[in-house]
Automatic annotation (TrEMBL), chains A, B:
<dbReference type="InterPro" id="IPR020097">
    <property type="entry name" value="PsdUridine_synth_TruA_a/b_dom"/>
</dbReference>
<feature type="active site" description="Nucleophile">
    <location>
        <position position="52"/>
    </location>
</feature>
<dbReference type="GO" id="GO:0031119">
    <property type="term" value="P:tRNA pseudouridine synthesis"/>
</dbReference>
<comment type="similarity">
    <text>Belongs to the tRNA pseudouridine synthase TruA family.</text>
</comment>
<dbReference type="InterPro" id="IPR020103">
    <property type="entry name" value="PsdUridine_synth_cat_dom_sf"/>
</dbReference>
<protein>
    <recommendedName>
        <fullName>tRNA pseudouridine synthase A</fullName>
        <ecNumber>5.4.99.12</ecNumber>
    </recommendedName>
</protein>
<keyword id="KW-0413">Isomerase</keyword>
<comment type="subunit">
    <text>Homodimer.</text>
</comment>
<feature type="binding site">
    <location>
        <position position="111"/>
    </location>
    <ligand>
        <name>substrate</name>
    </ligand>
</feature>
<dbReference type="Pfam" id="PF01416">
    <property type="entry name" value="PseudoU_synth_1"/>
</dbReference>
<comment type="function">
    <text>Formation of pseudouridine at positions 38, 39 and 40 in the anticodon stem and loop of transfer RNAs.</text>
</comment>
<dbReference type="GO" id="GO:0160147">
    <property type="term" value="F:tRNA pseudouridine(38-40) synthase activity"/>
</dbReference>
<dbReference type="InterPro" id="IPR020094">
    <property type="entry name" value="TruA/RsuA/RluB/E/F_N"/>
</dbReference>
<feature type="domain" description="Pseudouridine synthase I TruA alpha/beta">
    <location>
        <begin position="8"/>
        <end position="104"/>
    </location>
</feature>
<keyword id="KW-0819">tRNA processing</keyword>
<dbReference type="GO" id="GO:0003723">
    <property type="term" value="F:RNA binding"/>
</dbReference>
<feature type="domain" description="Pseudouridine synthase I TruA alpha/beta">
    <location>
        <begin position="144"/>
        <end position="246"/>
    </location>
</feature>
C-alpha cells in the first residue's frame, strides 16, 4: 500500500463541491472513480479543504492509498486520462509517508477571490469571478481587511451549517489589491470556517462600495452573530490556491 | 439615424464564429437580435474582424445604425440586458460619424494567442487556451517570429478558404513571451489573412519544441505554398484583443 499526495486543479462550476454527494457530481467522486478505473481499487480521496459548490481549485492537495504497484508519474497520467470528461486535472503526484494526511497534516491554506468591477456581464469568465458594477475602493478594502487579521471569534463570518467545534480562527493574511478592472483578495490561515472567505469578501465589497465603513466591519466582527453579516459573496470568484505542509 | 461604435467581448466557444450563419449561432446574430429587441429595428452589425468558430473577443469593435433616439449608454445597457444568455458583452458604446466603419476605417488589429504548457488537461481554461505538453523554448519562438515580421507573401499561412485578393500583408509585431507555464503570442497588423495568426502560432510551436529550426520557418514562408505549413494552431487560444482607428 502506497500513499500518494495529489495536487489537483478543477473548475468548480459543474460540481456540487469537493465532497461526495448523493444528489450530484463531486470532485472527490470524479477522482475516486478515475482511481477505480486505473487500479480496480475502491479508494477514499481526502482533501486539504472541502470546497463548496461552484468553488474552484488551482492547487488543492489530496491523498489516496493504492495497493497496486504503480509509479507516481504513471498514476498521475492514468488518472488524468480516466477523469475525463470532468474538468479536473492532477497537476502533481508524489509518494508520501503513510501518516501524511492532506487534511490533518496541512498547516496553512491559501484562497484567492476574484472580483471583476464592470457594468457589462461576464462572458468567458462567467462563473469564474464575481462581477460588481459599482466602483470599488480597493485601498479602503485592504485597510479594513486588516481588522480581521489575527485571532478572532469569526461567528459572524461562519455559515449556519459550519461543523467546526470552535468559531476561533487565526487569519494570517487578508490582502486586497487592484489590477485594472480586477480586484483580488488573498486569504491565508491554518484553517477556515465554512463560508468564512466568502463572508469576509462580501463585507469587504460593502466597504469597497462605501456602504460600510471600517468601523461597521469591526462592529460586525465584534457582534459574533451571523445576523450581523453584511453579505456573503458568491462561490463563483473563490479559488483554493495552495495548501502548505511541514 | 445614428451610428454607434461598440466594443465587444465574447466567449467564442458556443459560436460558429463572428459572422451570421444559417447553421448555428454567431456573435453577429446575437447582437443583431438584441438590437432588434431593444429598438424594433433590423440592423446589420459590422465588425473589425470576422473571427472563426471558437475564437474569442476581448475588445472587438463593431458598428450599427439606429434610427430610434437613444443615448449610447442606454443602448449599451439595453443590449447587454437583451443579449443574454449568450456570452457576449458590450463593454463600450459611443456615437460616431456616419462614415466611421468598424472594418474599413480600422488601421490596426491586435490578436493574442494563449498557450499553456503542461501535461495535465485544462479545467476552467478548457477551450480558452492551447495546451501543449512538450517543453517550449519561448525565446527561440520569439527569435524565429521576427522572420515573419514585415511585408511578405503569406500564402503558406493562409487558409484555402481565404477570400483576400492578395496574400501580401505587413506584419507589424509578432512577440512571444513566457510567464510561468504560459506562453503568449501577440500579433499586430493592419489586417490579417484567414487563419494567418493560427498558422503562424502553429509553426512557432514547432520551433518551440525544436521540431523546426528558424531556417525551417524561413523556408516555409519562402515556399508561398499552403502545403509547406507545419501546423495550424487550434482556435481555442486565439483572442481578438483590440482594433485601432485614426
Amino acid at each position: 500500500m502506497t500513499r500518494f499526495a495529489l495536487t489537483v486543479e478543477y473548475d468548480g462550476r459543474p460540481f456540487m463541491g469537493w465532497q461526495r454527494q448523493d444528489h450530484g457530481p463531486s470532485v472527490q467522486q470524479a477522482i475516486e472513480d478515475a482511481a477505480f478505473a486505473v487500479t480496480g481499487e475502491r479508494v477514499a480521496v481526502h482533501a486539504a479543504g472541502r470546497t463548496d459548490a461552484g468553488v474552484h481549485g488551482l492547487g488543492m492537495r489530496a491523498h489516496l492509498d493504492i495497493a497496486k504497484d504503480i509509479a507516481p508519474f504513471r498514476l498521475m497520467e492514468a488518472l488524468n486520462a480516466r477523469v475525463r470528461p470532468h474538468p479536473v486535472a492532477i497537476l502533481d503526484c508524489v509518494a508520501v509517508a503513510d501518516d501524511w494526511h492532506a487534511r490533518f497534516s496541512c498547516v496553512a491554506r491559501h484562497y484567492e477571490y476574484r472580483i471583476v468591477q464592470r457594468r457589462a456581464p461576464l462572458t468567458w469568465e462567467r462563473g469564474l469571478a464575481w462581477r460588481i458594477a459599482a466602483d470599488l475602493d480597493a485601498e479602503a478594502m485592504h485597510a479594513a481587511a486588516q481588522i480581521l487579521v489575527g485571532r478572532h471569534d469569526f461567528t459572524t463570518f461562519r455559515s449556519a451549517h459550519c461543523q467546526a467545534d470552535s468559531p476561533l480562527r487565526t487569519l494570517d493574511r487578508l490582502d486586497v489589491a487592484r489590477s485594472g478592472d480586477r480586484v483580488v483578495v488573498l486569504a491565508s490561515a491554518r484553517s477556515f470556517l465554512h463560508h468564512q472567505v466568502r463572508s469576509m469578501v462580501g463585507c469587504l465589497a460593502l466597504v469597497g462600495q462605501g456602504k460600510w465603513s471600517a468601523a461597521d466591519l469591526r462592529a460586525a466582527l465584534g457582534a459574533r452573530d451571523r445576523a450581523a453579516l453584511g453579505l456573503n459573496a458568491p462561490s463563483d470568484g473563490l479559488y483554493f490556491v495552495r495548501a502548505d505542509y511541514p
